[in-house]
Amino acid sequence: MKMSPAIPQPVERENYLNKEYGVWSWLLTTDHKRIALLYLVSITFFFFIGGFFALLIRLELLTPAGDLVQADTYNKLFTMHGMIMVFFFLIPSIPAVLGNFLVPLMVGAKDLAFPRINLLSWYLYIIGGALMLHCVLTGGVDTGWTFYAPFSTSFTNTKIVEAGIAIFIAGFSSILTGLNFVVTIHRMRAPGMTWSRLPLFIWAHYATSIIQLLGTPVIAVTIVLVAAERALHLGIFDPKLGGDPLLFQHLFWFYSHPAVYIMILPAMGVITEIIACFARKRIFGYSFVAFSSIAIAVFGFLVWAHHMFVAGISVYSALVFSFLSYAVALPSAVKVFNWTATLYKGSIHYDAPMLYAFGFLGLFTMGGLTGLFLAALGIDVHVTDTYFVVAHFHYIMVGGAVMGYLGGMHFWWPKISGRLYPEGWARLAALIVFIGFNLTFFPQFVLGYMGMPRRYYDYSHMPEFQVLNVLSTAGSTVLGIGYLLPMVYFLWSMRYGKPASDNPWNAAGLEWKTTSPPPTFNFDEEPVVTWEAYNYDELDAPHPQEVPVAR
Amino acid sequence: MPDSTLVGLHHEEEHHPELLHHFATAEQQRDAASLGMWVFLGTEVMFFGGLFCAYLVYRHWYFPDFAAASKSIDATMGATNTAVLICSSLTVVLALWAAQTARRTLLIGSLILTMLLGVTFLGIKGKEYKDKFEEHHVPGASFSFSGVPVPGHPGQYANPRHAQIFFTLYFVMTGLHALHMIIGLGIFSWLLTMAWKGRFTPEYHTPIEIGGLYWHFVDIIWIYLFPLLYLIDRHP
Amino acid sequence: MSEHSNSEHVKSSPLKLYFGIWITLLFFTYLTYKAAFIDLDRFNAAVALGIATLKATLVALFFMHIWHAGERLIKAVVISALFFLLLLLGLTMADYASRPWS
Questions:
Q1: Cβ-defined contact of B3 to C73 (cutoff 8 Å)
Q2: For B227, which of C15, C32, C78 is closest by C-beta distance?
Q3: What is the distance in angstroms between the CA of the first residue and the CA of the last residue of chain B?
Q4: Separation CA A528–CA B160 (nearest Å)
Q5: How many angstroms separate the CA atoms of C60 and B221, rounded?
Q6: Using 50, 70 and 90 to split pLDDT, how confident is the model at A548?
Q7: Which 8-state DSSP code applies to residue A86?
Q8: Contact state of A250 with C92 under an 8 Å Cβ cutoff
Q9: What was the pLDDT predicted at B4?
Q10: Please, which residues 135-164 of chain B have a Cβ atom closer than 8 Å to chain A?
């Protein structure tokens, strides 16, 4: 390989990381695993940019007066935080990193169906991201991430069209990822890998892909209309010219509500894998969990106007959407029950991935239940556009999706990098994240219920809000530390971590039957599947020659 | 089940010239490409769908003004364009049959004819746009639609602001459609090049199949655009 | 599974079918055009959209070969896309139609 015969060194097996070196071997790769790592670096970058804006927001809110930044600047802070976190971190995160890496491995394929489209997808993300970064650095946008018309089309002076184009391009990236996953899951499963033997991670990503494919085009065309209206002073959404602002909201939320399920479904898939492995049990109710993923995808498209209860939709519309919003909670609840039932009488191990899973269970449940509060029309009128809503969605997106992402990164890190991360530090980081998260966002439920509006930089008319705001800001600092730790030790482990065996967790799944890291074409021989999913009873049955689980 | 991979075929068609390395068989590759195009067309349905939604809302709100605006665009040109696209869908399907039955001349002829019909469509569209420009019906600073009677309501005149919304939707919807036509022409010129080089055989002609699907979809969009934009209220 | 794997034995029938569909489509286009000039009151829109749907269905079934597709997956993709489109159109219009104002 790459060493001279005179120097005795351990021979490193060829895998996807060392097969080729050099910048172009990465930038022109079609290997789904390398593309996953390209995404990993990019979304981490945007995560910290979005987090930086969050930090500034929390700093401003330490005091009731608007004394850190001006009002217009504050508007830009929460807008850029939202746009970057939603479109450039959360939507891609798990699918583009863990999904890209694992979907072919889990179904037993050599790559995704369309590897070059996969690479294109990353380049589109980068182009969209670069454009968004340029927009941020040259003034940003101040409309809120929801860029409601007619403010966004007729009144604001900020760079809506540029941000819109950036999001449009990133959306196309998302559509192509979804397309790749759907075709791969349908057409490229290994012999014997029937639908009912697929890991539930795959079902979750399949459902996510459906949403990406059907929802993203609608926001894409909405952005086109906003750009047209802004550039040509037309009247599609402007009431002065006969347009209806609510039409914008209908079209916007038709995508943006299902978008939140794009963010949470993959995390649910991750959690399912982790819970099965660290409870050493088959998932309780496999078909229920599988079909609930599809149900979430479908029902998720039926509820969008619950973001518009006080905007001016008809009361009959509101009733229908309120009812449907209760219904969409049902499949999620089914999953929570099934995870809990899986834990019951399981042999539970508290490794870092499992700590994140436990955190997810509690925090996602809280976030989901508070969603029901918001689905109730009477309560929604009271808490809409307050910090109650902000807390609700952060519980799901951060307490849920981000914890799922981190848990998944820890669980599959040995497979991705071929190294073990330091378990002690990882457990500490998980704990810090959990504490920091709750300290940041629980006070916000109280603040919202007490009436503090969202998107306000100055609350000096209600100075009694300060205590809770200070707690929240303190929590955000702790949370930030919790997020920085994994960055440090993951990087450390790539050089100094213990080399990982093929299956350090003794987990079920085809990805664990190949080397860590895998070879470029995933499997030395095409796998033929003859066992059911989550066969932990077989994996844990004592074999004479089996080595105990590596720790 | 048809959509799973074939069991046990490890070394089939390894020497098939068009087989990509990550597919087990040529059939898997073809099925993947076909499903991929169908799924993509599903996304296009939703893309245009958003515009159809905006159209429906404003037609519901401003029917008289929409009727007046619709009457001012040329229905004969629209109908002709519809016929042109229908003919082009025929030539596309003939091209596919020609590839399946190894009829090179028919294949190349049909591809060329398809592209000619596509260009004809765009030409007629261009003429329509030019007419609208001259009549000041293009939305924007120089839009003007005063004194246009509402069909069926003598004495009533269309509200220019509402008519402008019609024309906005007209230009965005037909413009987006025309953009898809242009992309279609690009795809077909690539297909023509490949066909000229003899790359298509009865065993391998997937690009024609999926290019054809795209073209038919663009035709279907127009099949809906024509009555919705041109024929709102034409009766005397 | 692809329906083109046995292209030889469908050699004679598809041409007749294709030309037949083509003529039908042209005829319906002519019909739509003519019907627009007749006063059918509320039904003008229904007739126009109905004919358009018929034409689109013919193109999809026979030119895009859904009719002959062996597996149901493609049909499922088409029906799903149409379902979600109708959802967008239907639920949005339901709001507008049920507003007592404007």
A1: yes
A2: C32
A3: 57
A4: 67
A5: 12
A6: low
A7: I
A8: yes
A9: 42
A10: 139-141, 159, 161-162, 164
